[in-house]
Structure prediction request, 267 residues.
Amino acid sequence: MMWWRSEPFDFGGAAGQAHLKVRGLSAGYGPFLVLRGVSFEVKPGLTVILGPNGAGKTTLLRAINGLIPRQGEVLLDGEELPEKTHEIVRDGLALVAEGRQLFPQMSVLENLELGGWLVPKAERQARIEQVLNDFPKLRERQQQLAGTMSGGEQQMVAVARAMVSRPRLLMLDEPSLGLAPRMVDELLGIARRIADAGTTVLMVEQNVKKALAVADRGYVLERGALVASGPAKLLARSTVIREAYLGAASSDTTSSAEAARRTREVA
Ligand SMILES: Nc1ncnc2c1ncn2[C@@H]1O[C@H](COP(=O)(O)OP(=O)(O)O)[C@@H](O)[C@H]1O
Ligand SMILES: [Mg+2]
Prediction:
């Protein structure tokens, strides 16, 4: 059995296709500024953010979600997002953080119920039912303690839990980290299907090739700044991506600044 059902997913799309605009976003930790005036857009569909370790990808998701202080504008469908996390959940955002953060001593079902903590009980049950329809393997495993599942299985629970809040914008921070190749494919397939069902998805990924193969658009973040962007298919062929991330032989005559400039032209 696959992790998801073969028919299109039910969830998402309820409130229409969300559009995120970020303008001049700066954020960091205490005096240490990580992001310096980042501006970008997340249109309906699947957008991926690529970049090396330490570039600020997680910091970017934290700042959007109000988990750390920020400066600049974060607009969801033209409306400024509040900086408080519980208000953000109400506004239709969900974040699956690095490391999944399930409650290991609780069952799969209990973890899913926590995903709907702000939803009235009757509606929460209906949403969980919908999510279990979309993830039939989780229905089989609903009584299993989350902590006894494999890494890939836990990641599925984390994504399913986020979908119980029926977000308009789902953010995934390196969902495939540490997973076996087949599980990576399944997870990226799920991200694609969630986007197709009407929830806008913003995903940070290390699997550059596989992520660009499922995404609509991509951005490359390096040292706290966006250095390239464009349709996923074009980015996958761009010099900056091929040289820095896909292991193509680097040319002595092409500086990385030159490569970045060319990629911007592709966008
Ligand atoms: N809680 C923190 N306190 C201080 N510095 C942090 C913290 N988290 C991350 N950093 C620093 O911020 C920078 C960006 O980190 P991060 O956003 O996690 O990068 P990425 O997700 O792209 O690997 C790094 O230099 C990292 O060391
Ligand atoms: Mg990170």
Notes: The two ends are 39 Å apart (CA to CA). Residues 102-166 form one domain. The pocket of adenosine-5'-diphosphate (ligand 1) is lined by residues 29, 32, 34, 51, 53-59 (CB under 6 Å). The first helix runs from residue 57 to 64.
